[in-house]
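Issue 218. Parser rejects a valid record. Input:
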Amino acid sequence: MKLIEGGVCAAKGFRAAGLHCGIRKNHTKKDLALIVSDAPAAAAAVYTRNLVKGAPLTVTKSHLADGQARAVICNSGNANTCNADGIEIAEKMCALAASRLGIAPEDVLVASTGVIGQPLDLSPIEAKMDALAAALSSSGSADAAEAIMTTDTVRKEIAVEFSAGGKSCRLGGIAKGSGMIHPDMATMLVFLCSDAAISPAMLQKALSTDVQKSFNMLSVDGDTSTNDMVCLLANGLAGNPEITEEGEDFSAFMEALNTVTVWLCRTMAGDGEGATRMLECRVSGAPSEADAKTVAKSVICSSLVKAAMFGADANWGRVLCAIGYAGVPLDVSRVDLSFRSAAGEIAVCKDGAGIPFSEEQAKKILLETEIEILISLNAGGASATAWGCDLTYDYVKINGDYRT
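Output the parser choked on:
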């Protein structure tokens, strides 16, 4: 398996486009994206568990009842959530795209991201739909990735090439996610495309299994969004024998999928609103994987740990505190802790107690942009990894007037 260029269009038969249609007041920012498969595709998705859900999620879930899709349309700048006509608008977005593509509206998935509770005017979308369809290209991933961004500061796209059934297959994707990100299914908008042949049931199994170790282990600020959704399309144009059960080919697909999703997780964590550092918490020696996940997420979600990392302060007691309230029964007197980055590694706690260490060296390590928090519970053989970011002044600035 290797990394390749192309993002969401790296797989055969996928085209994408993104442009500014007028939803956002800033004319330099793209706000409407379209992704299309030239052939019918198996499709799967996972959604937020927030009881307040955006209308596009309801429509997408309905359109995916048959496990098939051909296109995805997504706007930024308005979440189309908590609107009386939200379902109607989302359905019309699908119909507009379908009419330009010559496909059924039920084969179009829809997503929206942005401000909650403001009506979404369909007229700018309708006015630009012809231009959007005309702009579709196998090199359009970057434009689509930009069009779904809100407070993101960097474009998020990746693709890999792998082998299944003796055929070369590809899987790539784009994502948006910077704030309002917290584990509870998935935590952003992610669109993934593959040319591998795989049944809808196995595609859903692959995605539902993967998010437990990828997107569910990511937290920026502890807020689960109303519009979180991850969609995965696979059109089979690679020509491999269809994957219909677990085995070597399914494992290869899962490895490719996880490579893409973990990269997106790390990128979103590093691009958290106002963030200056990406945090990766690795827990080992846990009694079970579930316990390891719980501890890792507890540490990543701790506001005090996040604030300490912003200040490059090796305040290891805050990490132990987060371990202690995670809800996992542990012998704290066996816990070891160290911090690691490109500048080196330093142990700060052994057997649940502090040990002498150089504050100067610790500061140097924690001033790097990517920090690893390494925890050994010394209570078993299970492990887990979670991703997050530091908590900065800019996070409050960004969200203090987000709507206005």
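Fixed in the parser; the record now loads. The radius of gyration is 22 Å.
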